[in-house]
Amino acid sequence: MTLSTLPLSYCTNVHPGRTVSEINAGLSRYTAVAREGLSFPVAAGLWLAASVAQELTEDPAALESLAQTLWQHDLCCYTLNTFPYGDFHSERVKERVYLPDWASQSRVNYTEQCAAILAQLLPQGAEGSLSTVPLGGRMNPQSANFRSFCYANLIRMARTLRSIHESTGRMIRLAIEPEPLCELSGTEQWSLPVFRGLFEYAEALGCEDLVRQYIGLCFDVCHQAVEFEDVAKSIRSFDREGIRICKVHITNAVELLNPSENVAGRQALCRFAEPRYLHQTFARFADGSIQSRLDLQPADIERSPADEFLRAEAWRVHFHVPIFAESLGPLNTTRRDLEAALRQVAQLDYAPHLEVETYTWPVMPGETESVAACVTAGDADPLAARIGRELQSAAELLSEVS
User: Fold this and answer.
1) Among 300, 263, 294, residue whose Cα is nearest residue 279
2) pLDDT score at 370
3) C-alpha 59: how far from its chain's center?
4) Which of 279, 286, 319, 320 is CA-nearest to residue 300?
5) Pairing mode, if any, of strands 245-250 and 215-220?
6) pLDDT value of residue 303
7) Domain ranges in the chain?
8) pLDDT for residue 286
9) Contacts of 264 (CB under 8 A, 6+ apart)
10) Where are the alpha helices (DSSP H) in 10-145?
């Protein structure tokens, strides 16, 4: 029972990477500079957009340049974020981040490319992981046989990963990442039934053991905390069902207590309603019931007189905020849930990959102008400093819970 001893990973979806050269530049400008200020090794959790994966697949020199950039900055890579397929830094991402979904052939092809790339980047003796979309978003159109198509494609992916393992000796697992209001979201209502369905589908084809070996879960603490889950209980539930947690995203969400009367909190929360990313919002009421809304809208926050949603005991919002913060002015964060989740992860009889994924700095209230200026000027500050602080905070928290 221990936490992973691999270098702590930081996901590079925090900065744009539409080409290999942009990936290399981001690693040099931000991740490497952040790593220099720390007393422990760091891993780069690479986000490879589909255009980058294609470039790396077609051009061996591009892959060599990426490997050299990692080596030059003393960075390793054992996990990829294959969740966002396209441009994760366009003006509007929102629900498009779940497309293509796992019913699509393009999602399979992209993930297979990323697996082959990771097999060449993996450190000797390390296992790899690929976090991916929660099959799809329930807000997007789906076919009548959506889950069956997804299950068939996941089984194909498991076979691809087995083939890579047999031919290279590199074990890589696919980690499906639940997210609020998606096919996999709340543990009991959505995620566990989907996995049970996948295992039953695989059993009928005589390949359940294969699927259990190569297909698992990415547990993003922010995503589960947003739904007011008991995150430690959720981790125990996945473990009890034999669902491997391949990867844990060390993340924090926003919490607003007593929204109808907390004027300062509502005003602060309005600044988090921004047009790029989807910010699913959940409300918990005095009787324990929970309601949700697809996105954070200023009109809902400022509604007068207060509607039922505003009269909840608390709101939680899918907005990745700094893990070092227990509060943000009049707003709280789910830092306590993060601590509880990591304590439970430390009780598993295996060690999931650990990755910090605070990608929202460019749209964080009060951060937009300074980060944009940093990127434009080619200056590592302030983004590298923020990445460094996140990694330091995560390392301290992991030391406490282990």
Assistant:
1) 294
2) 54
3) 28
4) 279
5) parallel
6) 86
7) 8-252+334-401
8) 97
9) 329, 330
10) 20-26, 32-36, 50-58, 60-72, 105-121
Model pLDDT, residue 21: 97
Contact 81, 46 (CB under 8 A): yes
CATH 3.20.20.150 fits 8-252+334-401, yes or no: yes
DSSP assignment of 30-62: IIHHHHHT-SS-EEEEEE--HHHHHHHHH-HHH
Q: Mark the ranges of the chain whose per-residue pLDDT is less than 50.
A: 371, 374, 380
pLDDT of 182 reads 98
- What is d(CA 55, CA 47) in angstroms, rounded to the nearest whole number? 14
pLDDT of residue 305: 80
pLDDT of res. 2: 81
d(CA 63, CA 174): 21
pLDDT of residue 402: 86
Respond yes or no on whether the N-terminal peptide bond of residue 330 is cis (omega within 30° of 0): no
Token pair of 339 as six digits:
């601590």
Say what the pLDDT of residue 219 is. 98
Distance CA(333)–CA(316), nearest Å, equals 9
Q: Enter the tokens of residue 135.
A: 């099959």
What would the pLDDT profile of 253-291 be if each residue is shown by its tens digit? 999 999 999 999 999 999 999 999 999 999 999 999 999
292 vs 181: CA distance, rounded Å: 9
Order of strands, edge to edge, in the sheet holding 327-328? 290-293, 281-284, 314-321, 252-257, 331-333, 327-328
Full DSSP string of 366-386: TTHHHHHHHHHHT--TTHHHH
The number of beta carbons lying within 10 Å of the beta carbon of residue 263 is: 10
369-to-63, 118, 360, 363 alpha-carbon distances in Å: 33, 34, 13, 9
Q: Collapsing DSSP states into helix, strand and coil, what is residue 123?
A: coil
Count the residues in the chain.
Answer: 402
Query: In the numeric block, which tokens belong to residue 208?
Result: 């359940």
Contact 356, 11 (CB under 8 A): yes
Q: Which two tokens stand for residue 122?
A: 């993996």
